[in-house]
Amino acid sequence: VDLPQVPIPVPPTLRSAQPVPEKLWLIQKYMSELQYDYTGLQFFEIRKNRPLCRLMDVAKTIIKESLPIKCLEAVILSIYLTSDLSGVNRFPVAFRSKFEGETYKHIVLGVYYNGRFGALGLSRRNTLMYKELRFKTLLDLLNHYISSYKDCCHTVDRIKLGLPVSHDKQSMESILWKYMVIRPGRVSHKEFSQQCDTFSRQLRGQTAHQMKYAKQSRDAAMEQRPGGNSGTTSDSSDITNGSGSKALKNSR
User: Fold this and answer.
1) Residue 2: per-residue pLDDT
2) Quick check: is 174 catalytic?
3) Which residues have CB under 8 Å from 111's CB, separation 6+?
4) Which of 83, 97, 123, 251 is catalytic?
């Protein structure tokens, strides 16, 4: 029996003359062609605390195997495919939502370029993944996600913003997945806006190294206070691709 050949998605060839928004769209289009993994199986092992260069090796394997992927794999692949876009700041954005008493987690790669924010990623729902590079502020971008979650009957109770990711695919540094934590339901709109503005200013004016050093200094100061605790814990198990994570039913 002659079976039709299944086309294998091919990573986009990005030309220097192409506008950045078009390059981001082509990257997203390629990941969408890989499709979201509904099988419940784990095709690729991703340990978030590994050096960036090792995660980039996983991205190469994803491209080679051309199997369906989930949200975390999509973030790793997005980082790899945007590494040559030196003017684009990339940072992880992780969401925790509630639905009927259950907790669900999801992650995308936030992007910032030329005064606009957007995002790359994959999800069960189209509204929870790619966001065009058109949002004037980080607050606008996050509120758009929160609204999209609401449409899925989910309530976002925590957002974690990570540090900008290095463009050096051979870097031995690990990604800092949790730099700032925002709890939309526990802060006023004004406080939410201020937190987003603070992160945005640092994103524009500081390097990842400077932001990381500033965070370490703040955490150390908090720990020195009597009975103080920075509240920052290891983030390695918050978003996994294994059986320990719950899929966002009909949504993620």
Assistant:
1) 75
2) no
3) 24, 82, 88, 89, 90, 117, 118, 119, 120, 133
4) 123
Alpha-carbon distance of 68 to 139, in angstroms, equals: 31
pLDDT bracket for residue 244 (50, 70, 90)? very low
Our measurement of the distance from residue 122's CA atom to the centroid of its chain's CA atoms, rounded to an integer in Å, reads 10
Q: Is 71 known to be catalytic?
A: yes
Report strand pairing: 180-182 vs 102-113. Answer: unpaired
Name the residue among 211, 251, 245 with its Cα closest to residue 73: 245
What are 36-63's pLDDT values in tens digits? 999 888 899 999 999 999 999 999 999 9
Active site residue 106: yes
Cβ within 8 Å of residue 136, ≥6 positions away: 115, 116, 117
Tell me how far apart the terminal alpha carbons of the chain are, to the nearest angstrom.
Answer: 37
Q: Which of 83, 106, 148, 152 is catalytic?
A: 106
